[in-house]
Structure formats: C-alpha cells, structure tokens
Amino acid sequence: MIDSSYRTAEIFDILSKGQFICSNAIDSQRRHLYEYVEENFEDLEPKFREIGYQLEDGNNYYYFSRPNESNQNVENKIEKALRWLDILAFFTSYRKDLCRGARFKLFDILNQIDINLALKEQLTDLQKRSTSGKNYQEMLNDLIKEMQKEGFVDLENEMEQTWKILDSWDYMEKMVMAVNIQDGENQSNELD
Q1: What tens digit of pLDDT does each residue of 102-130 get?
Q2: What is the 3-state secondary structure (H, E, C) of the chain?
Q3: Mean pLDDT, the chain, as a whole number?
Q4: Whose CA is closest to 105, among 94, 96, 114, 115?
Q5: What contacts 24+ positions apart, CB below 8 Å, involve 43-47?
Q6: Could you read off the pLDDT of 165-178 as tens digits, one per residue?
Q7: Which of 45, 50, 73, 96 measures 20 to 30 Å from 135, CA to CA?
Q8: Quick check: 92 and 109 in contact, CB under 8 A?
Q9: Under 8 Å between Cβ of 142 and 83
Q10: Please, what CATH class does the domain formed by 71-180 belong to?
C-alpha cells in the first residue's frame, strides 16, 4: 500500500501545476488519486491551505485555487482563461455535443477542417503563435497536446487517435457561463 504522505505529495505535484485530478481519467493511477482525495478531502484540505493552496471540489474533479495571488498571477490566469474560451469555442464549433466523457478522433476533426472554413480559421487563430510552417494536422496535434497537458483530455486509443474529454471540461464550461453572465449583466447595466 502506498504511503499517504507519498500520495499527498503526488496530489500536490499535479494540482500545483494547474492541472486537475478527474474521476474519469484514462490513467488508473489518476482515478485512484481522485478516489483518495474524495475519501480524505477533510484531512487534505487543511494541509494544502497551510501552504497557501485551496483544494477545490469540482464536478467529479479536484483542483487548486489560491486565495491571495499577485496581480501578475491573476493576469496570467485571465490570459489562460481567455485561451480556454477560444479552445472551447473551437471544439464546440467542431461538434456541439462535446461534453465530459465524450470521445473524439483527431482525424474526424481534420476532416471537418477540410470542409469547414470557419473551423480552419479558428484553429489557425488558436495556433498563430506556433503555425510557422505547420500544417493543420500538426497544429491540431499541438492543440490537443496542450489540452492534455492542462488536464482536459486523455488519449484513450493511440492507434486510432481517440481522445476522451475528462470531467475537468466542466471547469471550462463553467468559465464560459460566468463570462456570459457577467457580459449579460454589463449589457443590462448599460441599458439602464
């Protein structure tokens, strides 16, 4: 049996990088960590709070927030959030029914990019920093790898390039809702 301090360190290592621990991760070790956090949340939460991290419980996922952050960190998070909004827009343009637990194939997206100019433009805009000399498959690979690194998707089948959307996708969806609500409130205040 793995020592609890080792698991705590492993959880910290993942969450402190801004990633998520999801109940539906492909990797069984990550699923076990999710179960461990779920079973030991009351013990873990004060430990992490002591060192400046707030252990947050999402919809079948866990992540860290930081109550007192510098302005630079807040600005970086806003930039990251705006990027996530653009990425979410790209994936929902590809397929409106994508949600937690859904699967998609890289080649299906590439086929849509071939026939959908708007999707092609969205991908190019998303990857404009790194498109130099890259074709659409390479740009899409980079984007999906970024989503994997952020903890929103997992590779389910390498041969078929099938990806699974993790429970943490909910985090991005909630962010979009918060932006839409805030935008709606600003518009109604302007009308008053």
Answers
A1: 999 999 999 999 999 999 999 999 888 76
A2: CCCHHHHHHHHHHHHCCCCCEECCCCCHHHHHHHHHHHHHHHHHHHHHHHCCCEEEECCCEEEEECCCCCHHHHHHHHHHHHHHHHHHHHHHHHCCCCCCCCEEEHHHHHHHHHHCHHHHHHHHHHCCCCCCCCCHHHHHHHHHHHHHHHCCEEEEECCCCEEEECCCHHHHHHHHHHHHHHHHHHHHHHHC
A3: 87
A4: 94
A5: 44/8, 44/11, 47/8
A6: 999 999 988 877 77
A7: 96
A8: no
A9: no
A10: mainly alpha
| φ, ψ at 178 (rounded to 5°) | -65, -40
Return the domain boundaries, the chain.
4-65, 71-180
How confident is the model over 132-144, as pLDDT tens digits?
678 999 999 999 9
Given this model, what pLDDT does residue 1 score? 46
Q: What is the mean pLDDT of residues 69-74?
A: 70
- Tokens for 146, please give them: 């970024």
Please answer whether residues 171 and 63 qualify as being in contact, where contact means their C-beta atoms are separated by less than 8 angstroms: yes
**Structure tokens of 140?**
């899409």
Angle value at C-alpha 136, between 134 and 137, nearest 5 degrees: 95
**How many angstroms separate the CA atoms of 10 and 7, rounded?**
5
